[in-house]
Every structure is written in C-alpha cells, then in structure tokens.
Design goal:
The chain is an alpha/beta fold. It is built from 14 helices and 11 strands.
Length: 396
C-alpha cells in the first residue's frame, strides 16, 4: 500500500453505540434530532411461554410482533432526513450502501444501490447481506464503481470489522498470538489489521483505476472499543460508555490537491462529516445540520465546544429520545469534558469503580478520565452545564 498523505484530526462520535453513531455520520444530525439513538426498541415485557433459556428468549424477542413493529418504525426514522446519499442525488450522484446498516432497506437514506435490504420482519437487523463486505468480499464495491462509469458516486463502506465476532484469518492471528499473553487481545489486533487490509485494497483499486486524485476519502470508526484481556466483550468504559474509550475515533480526510497533510488537535465530531462533504461538492448543508466544514481551517480553530449524548441499548420510548438518554456531554476549549448523567437510566447501569454523578475531566492532562474535578470546580461545571442545556435540554 502506498503512503497516502491526509489530514488527521482528534475526533469524537456523538454516541458510543453503532446505530445512532452511523445515523449521525450519514445525516449530519444528532440522535435527538432524528430519533435514531438506540440500537433496538424496548424489550418485550414477557417472552412467549415456549421461550426458555438464552436462545429461546432471543427467539421470543425476535418473534414479538410489537418489538418487530417498533424496530421497523425505527428503521424508517431516516426516511425524511437530509442524508448524504439523498442530498448528493441532487447532483446526479449514484450511491452504494455496504456493511452495517440499521435502517432496513438501503433506500431509507436515499442510496441508489445497496446490499442491505431486509426489514426486521424478514430477518434483517443491522445489515443482513451487507455484512459480507470486507469479511467475505469487496467485489460489490468494484462492480458498483464500474457500473457508475462517468457518473459521480458515493460509497458507504461500513464493514463488521474489527467488530465481533473476532474470528480473524489464521495468518493474521498467528502474527499477534506471541505479542500479547491474552488471546482476546491478539484476536482483536488481528481484526484491526484485517480491516486495515481491506482499506488498503480499496485505495489500491482507486489507484489502479486512476480515480484516487478525484475521490474524497473519509476514514473513522463508529465507536471505540477497549478489549478486555480475560474475556471477549469490551471494557465497560468503552463501547456504550460516556468516556473517551467509547467516543474517541481517528478521523482522516484524503483529497489530493485540496487537503494538505496536517494533524489537527482541536477536537471535532463525526457530525461534521456530512456538511464537510456537501460543501466540498458545492451543496449547502441542511439548516438543521449543526456541524462545521472540516476543510475550513478557521472554522475548526474557532469552534468552542463539541457535544454528544449516550443512550440505552434498547430504547425506553422510541419516540422520545430524552427517555433513553444515559449521559449528555461536551468537550469545551479543547480540554474540559463535562458529563451529565440521567439518573433515571444510569442508576441501574453497570458503572464499576465510579460514583454516579456529574463528572468533569481535563482530557488533555488526564487522558484516561480518572480524576473527577466536578467538586473542585463548581463554576466550570455550571458554565458547561448551561452550554449543554443550550445544545439539548433533554426534556421529554
């Protein structure tokens, strides 16, 4: 893979869970704006009598008609939103969806082509056939680009990599097995390299077809993951959490001749991707998009704060985002992170080794968010609370 210069920034996602995070990337809107803030609707109050044991309960949940109806309703929350594919279509763009996709049929966001097409009632959930991309094949992307011909195109490459199941090719697993005493960490590192390889294949394809110089590439993750050493799941302070282990992501933009190689320390958000790409294509972002143009150096420098909210995995009420919120947070002046819990949803959550309450961290000096400064700096807490409430007060 050739060395490819790009702009690299310190970034966060608004929510540390895949479905709402992906929805924010494709729309440039927060979960409380689209109502896409949880992975699934509320669990059924009671599974059918026949549903016994873990597998039975899962089957009962999937078969519950209310659960399925609400899941399908959630999957259509993006139908009327100004999503990237829908906006780019105004300029004649063809667009391809691959990989993870929670919104049922790919057309819900305006994609013209796609791999994921099943509603929940037909067995779909977070991507169905689209989940083959990266893990089994890259061919659908190559076929789509060939088919597009001279027309402009947009590709959504969201593979289940390095996502669980952590089952990397043996050749990659062998590379890392001797580098860590934990088989779980070795598997995760191998999964990361597997994902890396597929990205390299895509970039090499663009080079081979002489498309690289006229293609904008944006690279990021939808949420963080810190691998436990003694078991397969992630650590509790990563995915689904309010901490940077779940919210931080690398974000790189490559556009030869337009983006100069540099690294930006001012925190930005994945909420900025949609307006950035729309501006780059000559389109004006929708009025409700709160993100900035990442290619506008001055706008990035002048930004005062970035925001986000974390939610329960299963919604409390699919129509009221505030009912499912666990934490609202902001990072102001590039270093001060305030986290405000919603005690209605947090008290029952697992929060080992941490007191439940308002948290304030200097994320520059305290990278792992270990020293809560909320009690020592009440004025800063009050100031940032007002900032968060001005962004979203989270009242049903």
């Amino acid at each position: 893979m050739h060395h490819r210069a790009s702009c690299s920034v310190a970034a966060t996602v608004p929510s540390s869970l895949c479905c709402p995070s992906l929805a924010s990337i494709i729309t440039g809107l927060y979960g409380w704006q689209t109502k896409v803030c949880c992975n699934d609707p509320p669990l059924p109050k009671a599974a059918p009598k026949a549903a016994k044991g873990a597998k039975g309960k899962a089957a009962g949940k999937k078969a519950d008609p209310v659960f399925i109806k609400q899941a399908e309703e959630m999957s259509h929350f993006l139908d009327a939103q100004p999503a990237l594919p829908r906006e780019l279509a105004k300029l004649g763009y063809l667009s391809l969806q691959t990989g993870k996709w929670w919104q049922g049929h790919f057309s819900t966001a305006g994609f013209t082509h796609g791999m994921s097409a099943k509603e929940r009632s037909k067995g779909g959930r977070h991507g169905d056939d689209g989940l083959k991309i990266g893990r089994e094949t890259m061919q659908p992307i190559y076929d789509f680009i060939e088919q597009a011909g001279d027309k402009p195109w947009f590709v959504w490459y969201a593979p289940m990599l390095p996502h669980q199941p952590h089952n990397p090719p043996q050749r990659l697993l062998e590379k890392y097995t001797g580098k860590t005493p934990s088989p779980h960490v070795a598997k995760y590192w191998a999964m990361v390299e597997w994902f890396d390889e597929t990205c390299g294949e895509l970039l090499d394809y663009l080079d081979k077809k002489k498309l690289a110089d006229n293609t904008i590439i944006v690279f990021l993750a939808d949420n963080g993951w810190i691998q436990q050493t003694n078991k397969a799941p992630a650590r509790s302070d990563s995915k689904l959490s309010q901490y940077d282990g779940g919210l931080r992501t690398p974000l790189m933009i490559r556009w030869p001749g337009h983006v100069k190689p540099r690294s930006v320390e001012t925190p930005v958000s994945s909420i900025d991707i949609a307006p950035t790409l729309l501006r780059a294509c000559g389109l004006k972002p929708a009025a409700e998009m709160q993100g900035i143009n990442l290619l506008d150096v001055q706008a990035v420098k002048e930004r005062k704060a970035i925001f986000g909210a974390c939610y329960t995995h299963n919604a409390v009420d699919i129509h009221e985002p505030a009912s499912s919120v666990t934490y609202r947070w902001c990072i102001a002046d590039g270093r001060w992170k305030l986290i405000i819990p919603n005690l209605a949803n947090v008290t029952a959550a697992k929060k080992p080794d941490r007191e439940i309450g308002v948290e304030l961290y200097d994320v520059v000096a305290d990278l792992h968010e270990e020293k809560n400064l909320a009690a020592a700096q009440p004025d800063r807490v009050a100031q940032l609370t007002k900032l968060i409430d001005g962004w979203w007060a989270a009242k049903p």
